[in-house]
Write a structure and sequence with these properties.
By secondary structure, the protein is α/β, with parallel strands linked by helices. It contains 28 helices and 34 strands.
Length: 762
């Protein structure tokens, strides 16, 4: 049972739940708001004099090989000297050096050279996935960690971690702050004890299914409390915690206890433990009550983790569920390819084609060991169904090897692979066309498994816990909940860090600025981005009317990830799976802006713009508008863009193609909106139904004044007509205003560097 409270609650002594109305009679509300674990951690990391307007500094940073090159390049352009806090550079996404020749390995060598030069920590390919390394070596009670990956979550180890775009890491590297209003805090009250064969993914999917679509925890902090926590071992807690990203929350934090302490002690970091718990009275802005004993094995059907069902329900209502999923799928992918799940029904059961246990969610010691208990002595079969298992780190692999678990799994016909995030984003184990894969990984968005609808391909992923993946595997690929099998036992994870001591380069505190960065031919600097002008003219180059648009749709994962050290090269993939004509439209429009920046009147090279400006000059006050002084850019419209990944490239790729703004009813995540801002793009809000279409221009006058004053602004849709629309931007910090007006965070920091140099000369 999962219950969502309609309003805030008081939690008394960690166990008594009191509704807001009654609680306010007995307790001081303002004092109780300060009684959460979250408040104390945020207060300890806040550098401002206001808890309402936080300016946070983090204890450590982390990135992987899709993001760290761009972050370091941006930081270099902004005056980087050395890393001020531990910065972990892992190589777990572009580990397969099979796309584009040497470019992935070149990025890895760039990362190692940067760790030497600036004092970073470098984790080579296949040693550990980013979040497992951070759990094993960096997380600690009361800390805050910022990562350029959306699944940066270490709350179960007492660390409030946030996944953000690279621009926010750049600010930390430059000793600046992460600025945010104080978030709402929602309690996740865990009660009872789960069935031994119910795994952390089952708990996580049940919670995600209850809260994602209604936005219950969107951009809030989830604080895990309640007596049920004591019934979950550390690996289990980590498995739930990492999936909180899929609720769209900002971060997470858990009550800590002896189990937490023992985990850190086993990892030779007992000093990183301290007890974290709510005060005697703590007020939460909402509560999710979870009776762990009632959670059954779950499956998240394509194409979102919130599309969650009990496996028993799916098996008992198979055709009805599959028809419903097919209908939703067609709304997302259109008629480009045929999305068919009904054909997966064999003898009244759902027949799947592939199983994967991998990554920061599924590749933990306990999940793989539990799966092995089910698999041992069985066969995965020699037909179409296959199973692959990816331990999340070499220490996890070593423990499983030493205990004979790996050989037990291999004997079933399953394949064992090294630490790699590929199955989570379409760079490893892409299923065959038409296949359905069941995975204990993090996401199952459209095409994230690697298929390309534009090429006539479609496959899909359903998320499940490793235990039920294993149960399905020994049943020939027929969907089976793990609770149908014998109860599993628990085994303690015997951590051995010898591989980290042997292979990880730890240069924190030992920066050698004389070292040279090692560049491969694909690593390119950021192109110049112009400052905002007072009036702007934006062409609508994409219009997406799906309820939610993921970052995977804005910039695809998979093989495109290999090009993320080349801003213009990667930009060629922008919206390629959602609107393949977007790049051409944006580039055609951007050439006018590039000529304008050279001092060429864009009207001299475009009869279309002549007509646009003729219409603008019919507006009162704009009879003499100058095209030379009006920035020309592009804008995309989406109802709710930015769900999913923290990847800043979803914004930066638009920017290097001339993007100046997004228009949305709302932004799915704080991090996507931050990415837009850090790349100098305006995050417009428009609540109405758009009256514009692709190819229309939108003229927005006085934009700088509107940004400075925080006012709504009247814009004009210019087609064969002129229509007014009112846009808003929402609250911006002074720093965010400066970034947008300057044209990017890079431009702001370049200006600061020039001023610093000038002051030195003077």
């Amino acid at each position: 049972m999962i219950k969502l409270y309609d309003e805030g609650v008081f939690l008394i002594n960690g166990t008594e739940i009191v509704d807001k109305t009654e609680g306010e009679k007995r307790y001081d509300l303002e004092k109780a708001k300060e009684g959460t674990i979250s408040f104390s951690i945020l207060k300890d990391h806040n550098t401002s004099d206001s808890m309402a307007k936080l300016r946070l500094k983090f204890d450590a940073l982390t990135s992987h090989d899709i993001t760290f090159v761009g972050i370091i390049q941006t930081s270099r352009a902004s005056g980087l000297i050395k890393f001020p806090v531990p910065y972990v550079l892992t190589n777990c996404h572009n580990s397969l050096c099979a796309v584009g020749g040497t470019i992935n390995a070149d990025d890895h060598m760039f990362g190692l050279s940067a760790a030497k030069k600036y004092g970073g920590i470098y984790v080579p390919p296949n040693i550990a996935v980013i979040h497992q390394y951070m759990r094993e070596m960096m997380a600690g009670c009361g800390k805050m960690i910022l990562g350029s990956d959306s699944h940066t979550r270490y709350g179960a180890l007492g660390t409030m971690a946030v996944g953000e775009g690279g621009g926010e890491l750049v600010k930390q590297i430059l000793s600046e702050t992460y600025d945010i209003g104080y978030p709402e805090i929602v309690a996740v009250y865990l009660d009872g004890k789960p069935h031994p064969n119910v795994g952390p993914q089952d708990i996580a999917l049940a919670i995600i299914g209850a809260v994602f679509k209604n936005g219950y925890v969107a951009n809030k902090v989830m604080e895990f409390v309640g007596p049920g926590i004591a019934n979950l071992h550390a690996d289990y807690r980590n498995g739930i915690d990492v999936m909180t990203t899929e609720t769209a929350c900002l971060s997470s934090i858990w009550k800590t206890d002896e189990i937490t302490k023992n985990f850190l002690k086993d990892h030779h970091r007992e000093d990183d433990y301290k007890e974290l718990k709510p005060n005697e009275s703590a007020y939460y802005d909402g509560m999710i009550y979870v009776d762990l004993a009632t959670i059954k094995p779950m499956i998240a059907m394509p194409f979102h983790p919130s599309n969650a069902y009990e496996i028993d329900y799916v098996n008992n209502n198979l055709r009805e569920v599959l028809e419903e999923v097919e209908a939703r799928g067609r709304e997302l992918i259109g008629d480009r390819v045929k999305f068919d799940l009904i054909s997966k029904i064999k003898d009244g059961k759902l027949q799947v084609d592939q199983g994967i246990i991998a990554g920061c969610a599924g590749g933990t010691y306990s999940s793989i060991r539990d799966a092995a208990q089910i698999l041992k002595g069985h066969s995965c079969g020699n037909d179409e169904y296959s199973l692959s298992v990816y331990p999340s780190s070499q220490p996890v692999m070593m423990a499983l090897v030493n205990e004979g678990v790996i050989s037990d799994i291999m004997a079933t016909g399953a394949t064992i692979k090294s630490a790699f995030c590929g199955p989570c984003f379409g760079a490893g184990d892409a299923p065959a066309n038409g296949a359905l894969s069941i995975r204990h990984t993090t996401r199952n968005f459209p095409n994230r498994e690697g298929s390309k609808p534009g090429n006539g391909q479609i496959s899909s992923v359903a998320l499940m816990d490793a235990r039920s993946v294993a149960a399905t595997s020994i049943n020939g690929g027929r969907l089976t909940p793990a609770t149908e099998l014998k109860e599993l036992d628990y085994s303690h994870y015997p951590f051995d860090d010898s591989v980290y001591k042997s292979r990880v380069y730890n240069g924190f505190g030992a920066a050698d600025t004389a070292k040279k960065l090692k560049y491969g031919p694909n690593i390119k600097d950021w192109p110049t981005m112009s400052a905002l002008t007072d009036n702007i003219l934006l062409e609508v180059t994409a219009l997406i009317e799906d309820p939610v648009t993921t970052t995977d749709e804005l910039i695809p994962s998979g093989e495109a990830s290999s090009y993320r050290s080349n801003p213009l090269g990667l930009a060629e993939f922008t919206l390629s799976r959602r609107d393949p004509e977007y790049v051409g439209r944006a580039k055609e429009n951007y050439k006018y802006e590039l000529e304008r920046q050279k001092g060429v009147d864009p009207q001299n090279i475009s009869s279309k713009l002549i007509k646009i400006y003729e219409r603008i000059r019919t507006l009162t006050g704009f009879e003499n508008i100058s095209a030379l002084n009006t920035e020309i850019g592009s804008v995309i419209y989406a109802i709710k863009p930015g769900d999913g990944s923290a990847r800043e490239q979803a914004a930066s790729c638009q920017r290097v193609l001339g993007g100046v703004a997004n228009i949305a009813k709302e932004y799915a995540t704080k991090r996507y909106r931050s990415n837009l801002i850090n790349w100098g793009m305006i995050p417009f809000i428009f609540k109405g139904t758009p009256k514009f279409k692709v190819g229309n221009y939108i003229f927005i006058p006085g934009i700088i004044k509107a940004i400075d004053e925080g006012t709504d602004i009247t814009a004009y849709i210019i087609g064969g007509y002129i229509k007014e629309m009112v846009l808003s931007i929402g609250e911006l910090t002074d720093e965010e205003k400066e970034i947008i007006k300057a044209g990017s965070l890079i431009n702001v920091n370049k200006k600061k560097n020039l001023m610093n140099e000038w002051n030195k000369i003077r």
